[in-house]
Write a structure and sequence with these properties.
The chain has 425 residues and is of the alpha+beta class. The protein is 34% helix and 11% strand.
Amino acid sequence: MSLAMLSDPHPGADNIHIALDYAAAGIPVFPCWEAAGLDARGTHKDAKEPYTLHGFKDASTSEMQIRRWWKDNSHAIVGIACGAAGFFVIDCDVKGEKNGVKGPNGINNFTEIAGKLGIDLGKSLTTLTPSGGAHCYFAMPESSAMPDGKLPGSSVDRERGIDTRGSGGYVIAAGSVMADGTKYAPSGPDLIEARRDGMLPPLPDGLLAAVRPKKVAGKLLGVPAALPRLQPPSQVEPPHSPPGKRDFADADAALADECRILAATAEGGRNDTANRAAFAIGTFIAAGAIEEGRAMADLQAAAVHSGLTADEAAKAVGSGIAAGKLRPRVPRADRDPPLVDGVATFGAKLAAAQAATQAALPVTGQLSAALPPPAATIIARPFKLVDPRTIPLRKWLYSKHYIREFTSATIAPGGLEAVFTTTLG
């Protein structure tokens, strides 16, 4: 394997586009330091360390969030949260000489291990790192969340230059450019295309057995080793409600908007725009809010109108929809609180109470006398504008609408009694 170098007068200027491409394919990303330095608090940060407060746990596919991150750190390299992306990565390091002792060559060692296990590394997706190492990508096994750490076993460990990156780790994305101009270079098939097309190679059985942690729970707890290990709780989301009228309307409006934008896209961004549009509509398709054949036909027609060939349009739209279907849109019924008509509810309760009272009384001449006095009539009065300064201070605040990373509140005219502040992360 060889090290790919990049000569660029502004190293890392395109890293944001790398991040957006990964996010469009449904791969959560976050910014990492492109070189060692000091943060705003004067704390030393190593190269490849996350810029975000919670590291890879903050990874996102939100274009708005990604643009906000890279606006603050324009040359940041791109980190991938392996577990959230469904990746299991073998990280092969090539260490240099230290104190006269040559460091391990993880690539050679892993190749040797793979050969003994009968694993064909030609089926893995590989990224070459600036230090001369390699990241070999496999699909995360569905049956277990892989740890981030050593490959267990005396012949496979970090001392031989081999790490694993699973549910508790991250790697730097292919295409990322460091501050010195060196690049994480892809080798072989494109990772984004493989992720979109569902062609990520599975982790071979022999290697899966090698990387699973040893069963030490029985020894630590003093219980028989034959007892089964506890399994992590299921991460499967509960079923959502079927789409309603507003969901169908949302899907129709989204399809019309995406087709309009796509059809007007100029050369240079048509393929990417087609894929992003298809991804967005794919989330509606997965929720059952729009028919796939219709959506695909409309998007492909818009893509061809923009200048793509029929084959290019079919590929971009097809892969985008496939990725979007992996992230079904949550129906409005499961997102919005039910609206209650207070007047109608009150009227229904009042009518029911009167009916019950009448049914319980004997039908005699005394019926009208036995009935309770009629309820006060509700009368609508014209709105009258008053000076807010004359309204007493309220002790409450009503907040209903929540937008990602923001909150909005409707506050009674006249203000609140107490002064308060809030910090939004």
